[in-house]
């Protein structure tokens, strides 16, 4: 089936190497029609129901249903009047680069999604929490926001309605933990970026103690298209019972690394072999981290699995961000995992002991194995750490995510660990180009 505007809604107007559509161009393409419809024909509750019916799930990693999340914001006469909508654009997950592509390729699509989500939860203030290194994204968004204020698409009485909204762009001070939504909220408040205890959850008690929805860039970009085309259309884009498309990405030793908008449920084999062009000549596929650095490896036996939330989870990993890192047969899997664990150890916020102290121990142990100083008991030590830093044993999900590539590497590449220790060297050193 050839791509058309109803099959690739998020990327249909993105032209790499060309300027993104300005406000006038975006409106000519049908932009802000969803906002007009919502403000003139739909109540906030009806917008939430439309997103609920579409089965849109968060595209930032967790996959929680967006409409359900929005419905958790308190309503009724006793509900707090001040609410906030926060867009999480702090894209610091290694291997992930989809949100930057969407922001810089079509900023007004994201802004319209933010405005619709804010209207749905009755928020009059929205924040975009942007990774500080994304300077081009910052410039693009500031220009687009200024256009909206100039045309009364932001501010007071938008489009002649009684709805008011301001959008503020906040650039992060730069910590990976800010991807955790409550740490992000602390950072926005000017506090140390550490996670909060839950419950209460942000939809009830969030930014400055008020109801807050935090949503990922890709998730919000889907919303205008759902309002324009309907929930059934959005469901029909997928190959499985998950709804919509997904921005899948591939990095590593493939012929065409990049990003593609494809139906949710597209197989790993199709993405790597057809869209990414297969492995570079002289390299063979050995494994892949399917959804950014904090997900478990999948291997050759998983190539024909449809990449959706439930199927990937059943295989022992997570879809995560859908941006995968491919491991080839000439790259040392221990070196790859060591590189990832070094990142996670440095980025730990230090709030809880297992994460603060456990991740550096993992990094040092992997370094010893890679450098030929490992001993047989190190493998048991790594297994123990992967369990002790697992779900339910740390304050937030940072450490459990950090040990996912480790625990799966111990499972699928056990022979490599043993060979490093028995030979007291990395057997891949001579293969590196």
UniProtKB/TrEMBL annotation:
InterPro entries, alphabetized: NADH-UbQ_OxRdtase_51kDa_CS, NADH-UbQ_OxRdtase_suF, Nuo51_FMN-bd, Nuo51_FMN-bd_sf, Nuop51_4Fe4S-bd, Nuop51_4Fe4S-bd_sf, Soluble_ligand-bd
Record EC number: 7.1.1.-
Coiled-coil regions listed in the entry: none
Keyword line: 4Fe-4S, Flavoprotein, FMN, Iron, Iron-sulfur, Metal-binding, NAD, Quinone, Translocase
Chain spans, region Disordered: 1-20
Similarity comment: family membership: Belongs to the complex I 51 kDa subunit family.
Role of this protein: NDH-1 shuttles electrons from NADH, via FMN and iron-sulfur (Fe-S) centers, to quinones in the respiratory chain.
Name of the molecule in the record: NADH-quinone oxidoreductase subunit F
């Amino acid at each position: 089936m050839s791509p058309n505007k109803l099959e690739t809604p998020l990327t249909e107007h993105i032209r790499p190497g060309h300027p993104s559509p300005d406000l006038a161009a975006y409106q000519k393409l049908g932009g802000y029609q969803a906002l007009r419809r919502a403000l003139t024909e739909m109540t906030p509750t009806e917008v939430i129901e439309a997103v609920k019916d579409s089965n849109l799930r968060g595209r930032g990693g967790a996959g929680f249903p967006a409409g359900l999340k929005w419905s958790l914001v308190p309503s009724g006469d006793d509900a707090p009047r001040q609410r906030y909508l926060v867009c999480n654009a702090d894209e610091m997950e290694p291997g992930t680069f989809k949100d930057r592509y969407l922001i810089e390729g079509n900023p007004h699509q994201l802004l319209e999604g933010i405005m619709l989500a804010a209207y749905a939860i009755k928020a009059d203030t929205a924040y975009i929490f942007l990774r500080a290194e994304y300077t081009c994204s910052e410039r693009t968004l500031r220009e687009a926001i200024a256009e909206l204020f100039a045309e009364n698409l932001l501010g007071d009485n938008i489009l002649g309605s009684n709805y008011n909204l301001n959008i503020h762009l906040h650039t992060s001070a730069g910590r990976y933990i800010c991807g955790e939504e409550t740490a992000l909220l602390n950072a926005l408040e000017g506090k140390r970026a550490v996670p909060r205890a839950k419950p209460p959850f942000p939809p009830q008690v969030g930014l400055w103690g008020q109801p807050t929805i935090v949503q990922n860039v890709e998730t919000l970009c889907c919303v205008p298209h759902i309002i324009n085309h309907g929930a059934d259309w959005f469901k029909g884009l997928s190959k499985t019972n998950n709804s919509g498309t997904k921005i899948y990405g591939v990095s590593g030793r493939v012929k065409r690394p990049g990003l593609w908008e494809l139906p949710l449920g597209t197989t790993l084999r199709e993405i790597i072999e057809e869209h990414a062009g297969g492995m570079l000549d002289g390299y063979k596929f050995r494994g892949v981290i399917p959804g950014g650095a904090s997900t478990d490896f999948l291997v050759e036996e998983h190539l024909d699995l449809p990449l959706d939330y439930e199927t990937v989870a059943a295989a022992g990993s997570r879809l995560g961000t859908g941006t995968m890192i491919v491991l080839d047969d000439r790259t040392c899997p221990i070196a790859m995992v060591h590189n990832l664990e070094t990142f996670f150890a440095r980025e730990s916020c230090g709030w809880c002991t297992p994460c603060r102290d456990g991740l550096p121990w993992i990094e040092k142990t992997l370094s010893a194995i890679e450098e030929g100083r490992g001993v047989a008991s190190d493998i048991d030590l790594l297994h123990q750490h992967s369990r002790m830093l697992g779900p339910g044993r740390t304050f937030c999900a940072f450490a459990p995510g950090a040990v996912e590539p480790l625990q799966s590497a111990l499972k699928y590449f056990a022979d490599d660990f043993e060979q490093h220790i028995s030979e007291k060297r990395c057997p891949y050193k001579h293969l590196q180009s």
